[in-house]
Design a protein that fits this description.
The protein has 61 residues and is an alpha+beta fold. Helix content is 20%, strand content 39%. The chain has one domain (3-58). The protein has a 3-stranded antiparallel β-sheet, with helices on one face. Bound molecules: zinc ion.
Length: 61
Amino acid sequence: MEKFKVVVWCESCQDDEEGCFGGSAEVIGEAFESWEAAAKAGAQYCGELPYRYRIEQDDPD
Ligand SMILES: [Zn+2]
């Protein structure tokens, strides 16, 4: 079954090793059953923060 994961990063800290997520990106939470559930979790996580997120398919292969 397809799973989805949420990758978040901070717009303000990209490439800043001292910044959020070490200036990189991070997968949050668990794998989600649907794209919608992943998008909701991503939106909630980012909230008012200068974070961006993208949904990736978690390919088990
Ligand atoms: Zn930041």
